[in-house]
Write a structure and sequence with these properties.
The chain is of the alpha/beta class. The chain has one domain (7-211): 3-Layer(aba) Sandwich (Rossmann fold). The chain contains seven helices and six strands. The chain has helices at 19-27, 67-83, 100-109, 115-125, 145-155, 180-193, 200-211; strands spanning 7-13, 44-48, 51-55, 88-96, 131-135, 169-171. A six-stranded mixed β-sheet has the order 2-3-1-4-5-6, with helices on both faces. Helix 6 runs antiparallel to helix 7. The longest helix is centred in the middle third of the chain and has 17 residues, at 67-83. The chain is globular and about 45 Å long. The N and C termini lie far apart (38 Å).
Amino acid sequence: MKVGVAMEIVLVGRSNVGKSSVIRQLTGKRIPVGRRPGVTRKLLRYRHGELDIVDMPGFGYMAGVSRARQEEIKTEIVRYLEARRQGILFAIQVLDARAFGEIVERWERRGQVPIDVEMFHFLQELELRPIVVANKIDLIYPDERDEVLDDICEKLGMPFPWSQWKDIIVPFSAKTGEGLEGLVKLICERLIACGKPHFIKFFKIRRKLHQR
């Protein structure tokens, strides 16, 4: 993985949760996305002046990738985050809101710590103040969303209701753009807290374009 000189916002998440699509919504750039898990198999960097948005490879299952290689990719992600800690402003962890609960329970039945939960706690340990993007919220009926979001929070170790964690978790649809304003708001708040308010302009422009 190549190390850049710019400050970074890093996106992490399981394969096929929509990280690249989230970046496309945030930047307006044409970014390769696909339906098969594992489209992003190497670090991709999108530069805006002195700020990089970094799309990390998806961890977990990837079509056509051996389990040993999947473990190597996870290790590479961890090492990258540790090595680049001082240059990373904060992290965005993307989850598949519809599938997250079932995946976590499957891991727990095997007596294993779910990789998504492990990654969230790791980001917290590194003090990267992760924003959790609960993507694909459009696939969940509106009257079921609060229950799903409460379950996500609880599985990540945050007491429900999810509404008390709106500074961390944002329901989102990379397909429709629903939740973009809320995500941009959290990003801007993180940038101010990091002492980098001059990076806000780009994201505010994206929000205005979405609202037109």
